[in-house]
Structure formats: C-alpha cells, structure tokens
Amino acid sequence: MRSTSNPAFRNLPTQQGGHATFDRSGGGMMGGGAAYAGAQTSHVDPSQASQEVGRPITIDDIVQKTAISAGLALVAGVLTLMSGMAILALPAFIVGIVVALIVIFKQKPSAPLTLTYSAAMGVALGGISIGFNNLYPGIALQAVIGTAGVFFGMLVVYKTGAVKVTPRFTKWIMGAMIGVLVLMVANLVGSFFVEGGLGLRDGGPLAIIFSLVVIGVAAFSLLMDFDAADNAVRAGVPEKYSWYIAFGLMTTLVWLYIEILRLLSYFQNN
C-alpha cells in the first residue's frame, strides 16, 4: 500500500469494505463546493483493526468534517484579521503545533482536537496576514482564493487521472519534501551569519522560484492525500476517522496558504 507525505495519515486502521470513493472511473462522488480530505490507510496490528467499531467511513463524512474544520479556521482567521490583533499569531501558532503533535502521536481521531487545531491555526494565519495585509491591502484574500484554487485544481487533476499516484510518484514527492525542508533549515541557519541567508526568502528571483517549487510540492502532495482518502473509504475504516482525515488535510492547507501568501508578497515587491 502506498505511503503518504502527511504524517497524520499513517495511523489509520485497515478494514475491509466497499463504498463510494474518489474513484476516477466515474463511480466516485464529488460534492459541490465541498472540500475533500486525504487519508492513507496503513498496515497495523490486526487486533487494533478488529477492535474498531462503528459504521464505515463515507465520502460525505470526509466532506462534512473537512468543511467544518476549514470553515472554522476561515472564520477565526477573518475575525483575527478584522480585530488587528497580530499579537495573537505566535501563541495561537504554538497552540496549533502542540495540538498537531498530540493528534499525530496519539494516533486516534478526535473532533475536539481537530477543531482546536483548526481554530488555533486560523487565528495564527489571521495574525500573520495582518502584517502582510497592512503592507499589501487585499493580499490575504488573494492568498485564500489561491489556496482554494490549488486545492480544487488538484482535486480535478486526481479525479481525471491526469497524474497517477504511483509508488514512484510518492517517492519523488517525499524526496522533494525532504529536500525543501533541508533547504529551509539551511537558509535559516545561514541567515544568522549572512543577511538573507541563501537568498531563498529575500523576495528576489531565487526566492520566487523556491516558493513556486514549495507550492508545487505541497500541491502534488494533495494528490497523495486524495489517494489516501480513497484507500480509507475502500478499506471501510470507522466513520470517526473522518476527523483524523480532516485534520491531515488542514495541515496541508495551512502550509499552502502561508507559502502562497509569501509568494504573493514577493510579486508585490517586484
């Protein structure tokens, strides 16, 4: 079974079942205007799977939980942006990271934790957006639209089968993610010694190229998330795991929004 780059999607139990999925053959379900999350089923102790109870997960479950989570984050972000309380960004971001680690290492679905993460990151992104919006009015809205566009664009790509999620594809994306992370860390360390570090975040041509690459990697990782969601539905994991899937997708959307916001700011400076 294929792996996924999102650590939140590696802990779902495996069961047998057959339900509507994102299947590209035309039998899958695509809800109008709703967000689809991705989740990767993984091999676990059979005893764990046998202990799981509840009706099997469906696409509607994933849509509903993801829509609730994304909606909460959006509302929290807008309210923070309107309040002008940028000071909330750092504490909210810390809360979001702590909750994310709890969810990942707990390896259990939790509606309260998923909603807490969504609200906290919404506040954090709203706080971050205040500074950008003060410098470039309207950039936050552009970033939201851009993030939604990437999400639905990749959903169409997956639905039509334009790009196949194969083991080779997965390895390439995961390798790219590791490379991006290494470069980010190197740039951060370099900034302590040389102004601008490696030039990956200074707004110049190299920074624009790097940001486009990061957005591309994040976008293609969504394909693996959608494929993982297919596997979860096909395996018939319990419905409660839809919250776990929603959490996993939210982490990707947060990453995309931050990078798109950064890229748009670069274009404003050029």
From TrEMBL:
PANTHER family: CONSERVED TRANSMEMBRANE PROTEIN-RELATED
Transmembrane segments: 72-105, 111-132, 139-160, 172-194, 206-223, 243-264
Keyword Methyltransferase: no
Source organism (scientific name): Pseudonocardia parietis
Alphabetized InterPro entries for the sequence: BaxI_1-like
Chain residue ranges for the region called Disordered: 1-24
Positions with biased composition (Polar residues): 1-18
Source organism superkingdom: Bacteria
Pfam families reported for this sequence: BaxI_1 (PF12811)
Key words of the record: Membrane, Transmembrane, Transmembrane helix
Protein name: YccA/Bax inhibitor family protein
